[in-house]
Amino acid sequence: MPSNLFSSDEKVIPADSPLSARMRPGTLEEYVGQKHILGEGKLLTRAVEADRVSSLILYGPPGVGKTTLALCICQKTRSHFERINAVASNVEEMRKILAAA
Questions:
Q1: Cβ density class 44-76: b for 16+ within 10 Å, e for less
Q2: Which domains are present in the chain?
Q3: What is the average pLDDT across 65-90?
Q4: Distance of alpha carbon 11 from its chain centroid, rounded?
Q5: What is the CA radius of gyration of the chain?
Q6: Which of 43, 49, 52, 58 could form a cystine bridge with 66, CB 3.0-4.6 A?
């Protein structure tokens, strides 16, 4: 985590980015919450550390950290992250993503 809210010691994010993007945790160690699956020795933590995460579907209301968690996992593993919004997307886009995978 940067030394304070206004420095960018570790992350270079444009100043005109939304506050949520500037404050988003960059690593699993910075991620807060979900200790029942991300705590020390827990299933998801072990899978990420071993780089054995096959695929995930993260479900929940807006703003709970689904995208942030996915980005943190992607950064720690050799995974490819494809962001898709169920509201703005369609079947054709999903088929393209699945075909590329």
A1: bbebbeeeebeeeeeeeeeeebebbbbbbbeeb
A2: 19-100 (3.40.50.300)
A3: 86
A4: 15
A5: 15
A6: 58
Q: What angle do CA 5, 61, 41 make, to 5 degrees?
A: 70
C-alpha to C-alpha distance for 99 and 60, rounded to whole angstroms: 26
Centroid of chain to Cα 100: 20
What confidence tens digit (pLDDT) does each residue in 1-11 have? Answer: 444 555 545 55
Output the CA torsion 79→82→85→88 (10° steps). -170
| pLDDT of amino acid 8 | 46
For 9-52, what is each residue's pLDDT tens digit?
Answer: 555 678 888 888 888 898 888 988 888 888 889 999 999 999 99
Distance CA(77)–CA(86), nearest Å, equals 24
The 3-state DSSP class for residue 11 equals coil
Cα–Cα distances in Å, from 22 out to 33, 68, 82?
19, 12, 20
